[in-house]
Amino acid sequence: MELAIPTGAIALAGTQYFLVFVRIGAMVFFLPGFGENYVPVRLKLVLAFGLAALVFPIVGPQIAVDPTSQNDVFRLVATEAISGVFWGAVIRLIIHVLQIAGAIISQATSLAQIFGGTVNMDAQPAMGHILVVSGLGLISLLGLHETYLVYILNTYAVTPAGIILGGADVADYSSRHIGKAFALAFQLAAAALTATLLYNIILGVINRAMPQLLVSFVGAPAITAGGLLLLYLMAPTMLDIWLAFVSDVIAIEDVI
Q: Alpha-carbon torsion 18, 19, 20, 26, what sign?
């Protein structure tokens, strides 16, 4: 006995899956790890299709859409694309935190641009490169795909299909989220800034006491070795604090 599946049901399911793919496809190009420049576009599309297939059974049936109405479909495609870009940009900030912290530490310790190119193929200080690679590796070891699935489902809980945040809500949430990101970056780099301040004070005192000594010959190797030692000592604590921030971003607890 053959099971007859109505054509309308297939069209509805296909449209719902496509709308899920539109949001996730826009997000994949921002997701840390998946959205990096070195990941081929075709692979990103495959990842988007795969994530959409995993999320669809949960959120797909909840999408109210009329497959026969072009206006309804186009409206939902537009809103889902906007939601995908917004939530993708939000989660991308977790990488910017490490980049900013690394830039601050590198400039303070005179260790900028040791490695040249970076994981993002952008000009970035050496310590930022190390922290970004370490952060990506850490969240990958802790279950990157599961983390992103939780985040995607949370975005649907806040902004269901067909609904986008208002301009005031977007501005308020973005300003608070970006403020937290910059504050955390400075917090992560605070120890290095303090150490370099003390180093410069000591170097100034030595220069005043012994003007004939070329302090740059002594100071340059010292600050380089000190910067590397600081990174070695600070990195585990920095990444622990950063992971707590990642958990808050994934949870999307303070949107409204």
A: positive
